[in-house]
Amino acid sequence: MRVCHRIVKLFFPQPDGEHDHATAEYLAYCSLIAQRVCLPPSDTGAKRIVPYCYSLVSRHNLRLQMKRHTLWKGPAKQMLREGPLCGLLMEFLPDCTTVMADPARLANQPELADDIVAALRTIHGAGVLHRDPLPRNMMLDPEGGVWWVDFGLAENTAYSAIHGTFCDSEVRRVDWLLRNDVIPAVREGRMAVWESLGQ
């Protein structure tokens, strides 16, 4: 029997007028699930490229969970007492690493760049524009699968007008970034430009 790990991704309160990352990410996952791009771990027949989002978790439910489990410690517990807090109950990918954390893997397997770009095209096909397509949000698993994470800046066609050129531009940016910055930086033993710019 396969064990499915889950995590809660917490979103701390934002000042009024600031971008609402929790809502943006949840709506992106709703669109990806509706278009069958984000599939549950039990769906073993399809290629999966986005970890599954089980639900949006409210402050009330988080409080109940924290009361039940003594393992909840640290600043999150204090923040929950002080103000609004919500989270996404997500599938956890325990053996994955980001391209940012392990760029050498991409340099050693440059064909993974094709898979990363193809996965992004699939996400766009579901009507979601990622808007933060950097190596910290691209993950690789031990079996050679690629994953896209962190849709906190995303927009989707269900709620916004997204011109097709935005998706094309995002794909070109990712393709250029991987092939002309990340991979050469590893091979030349230097820091990638995108990383040195602090993007």
Shape: globular
What is the domain tally? 2
Estimated radius of gyration: 18 Å
Strand content: 5-15%
Protein name: Protein kinase domain-containing protein
Organism: Sphaerosporella brunnea
Domain Protein kinase: 1-199
InterPro entries: Kinase-like_dom_sf, Prot_kinase_dom
Describe this structure in a few short sentences.
With 199 residues, the chain is α+β, with helices and mostly antiparallel strands.
Notes on the protein architecture:
The protein has 199 residues and is of the alpha+beta class. The protein has helices at residues 21-34, 59-68, 75-82, 103-108, 112-125, 164-188, 193-196, and strands spanning 6-11, 53-57, 86-91, 97-98, 128-129, 138-140, 146-148, 155-156. Helix 5 packs antiparallel against helix 6 (164-188). The protein is globular. The model has no long low-confidence stretch (mean pLDDT 86).
